[in-house]
Design brief:
Helix content: 10-25%
Structural class: alpha+beta
Number of helices: 2
Radius of gyration: 15 Å
Shape: flat
Strand order of the largest sheet: 4-1-5
Number of strands: 5
Distance between the termini: 25 Å
Strand content: 35-45%
């Protein structure tokens, strides 16, 4: 099944720490992490579907939350 949404991302190069109650719990491996920078591309049908599924009462603050609420697949493109 193809993705309805596409976003350009770059690999994470900084060290990432998981912090719980103000203390470092662990270092998160970076090999699977990316920073989704954009642009975000939605097909017209996918965007309409996402807005319909999310509804007007949703507390959605970004495109990842919108895509997740609408159960849309996101394809990540990492430029070489």
């Amino acid at each position: 099944m193809g993705a309805e949404v596409t976003v350009v991302a770059v690999p994470v190069t900084d060290t990432c720490k998981e912090v719980v109650d103000g203390l470092v719990r662990r270092t998160i491996p970076r090999d699977t992490l990316v920073d989704a920078r954009g642009p975000w591309t939605f097909g017209r049908e996918a965007l309409m579907q996402a807005l319909d599924r999310a509804g007007t009462g949703s507390d959605i603050s970004d495109l990842i939350e919108l895509s997740r609420a609408a159960r849309l697949r996101i394809r990540v493109v990492i430029p070489q």
